[in-house]
Amino acid sequence: MVFLLAPVIVAFLAKALFKSPLPPGLWPALALMLLGCSMVIGSKAMAAGSHPKNAALAGSSPGLPAGAGMTLWADRAEEAWLCIAIFGEERGSWLCNLEAEKETTEGDGDVGSGTGNSVGKKAKNWKKKKPKHDKGGLGARDALGIGLSFLGALGLASFMTTVQRARGVVSDQTVLWCNFLTQLPICFTLTFVLEHDKFPMLLHLGLVEYAEVFAMAAGVNWFANWIQQMCIRNLGAPQAAAFLPVRLLGSLAASYPLLNEGLVGPLQWGGAFLLLAAVSWYLVQQKKAADLGSRSTAALMAVEAEAH
User: What residue spans carry the region label Disordered (predicted)?
Assistant: First the structure.
């Protein structure tokens, strides 16, 4: 939620630096978008929806008791199948922050029987590790995360305004390289300080895992930043930043087939609808403003033509 303040910061920076009027309808649209995002994220965080699945996840439904692996911090391994399937059980348990809950053994024959055939199959149930501050309230890592979120929102706003300001001065490739070389030491330092105990796991990754990480960094990240820069330079930082809350809809659409997570309950569906309606209304306002500007320009040109 903190990161969603980036559009507001971009709007203030653009107005202060460029001295240009903001797009019409920006503030009402941003307010509605943030409200819709708050409804979705808040409902998911507190499991406050009225759908039975949410109540089961919260462990508060009398009809659906929350069994093992059904709390907000616990998911079975099959619900994290993507991580386990890609990285394997050993590495996936670390990457997904899972721990073995129990181990059962099923056999079709007695061990040491006369036939010498014994079939054993081990099935593990997994659950996510409890956070260290699960007794309630915010911990030190939560405060650090919120602070980093504010810095991230400010950094994104600065990046978007810089890209708009540097249009025609530097190329897109130059901006991409500057962005990458800036992120590299910052991300490495933060990761080393906060997660230094997990660095040895990198030594045990195989070629496939390294290829997947490289594809994500060099492919998805590079392509996404390149598209984002094109949008900023063509639309301007305020208008491009106004669509940042729409990322929530994209993440929800991607999480359903991959993680089997979707919208649950009227609050989440209402927030998504409000977000979509706010974006649609904002686009209509921009279309009206563009049409009005085109008519004004055409009328001015006609007057100048008659004068000559």
Answer: 104-136
CA dist 93 and 80 (Å) reads 10
Q: Report the DSSP beta bridge partners of residue 4.
A: none
User: By the 8 A CB rule, do 64 and 50 touch?
Assistant: no
Q: Locate the domains of the chain by residue range.
A: 2-64+133-302, 77-128
The answer to whether residues 284 and 276 touch, using CB atoms and an 8 Å cutoff, is no
Angle value at C-alpha 251, between 245 and 252, nearest 5 degrees: 100
Query: What does the CA dihedral 256, 260, 266, 270 come to, rounded to 10 degrees?
Result: -20
* pTM across the whole model: 0.56
Kindly report the number of other CB atoms within 10 A of residue 276's CB atom: 14
- Tens of pLDDT, residue by residue over 46-96, are 754 444 444 444 333 333 333 333 333 334 444 455 566 666 666 666 656
Residue 108 structure tokens: 């079709």
What is the 8-class DSSP label of residue 199?
Answer: G
Q: CA separation (Å) from 144 to 148, 189, 305?
A: 6, 15, 63
Rounded Cα distance, 64 and 103, in Å = 24
Closest CA relative to residue 121, chosen from 132, 105, 101: 105
- Phi and psi at 25, nearest 5°, equal 80, 10
pLDDT (0 to 100) of residue 66 = 37
φ, ψ for residue 169 (rounded to 5)?
A: -100, -45
Here the tokens at position 298 are 């055409």
Q: What's the length of the chain? A: 308
Radius of gyration of the chain (CA): 26
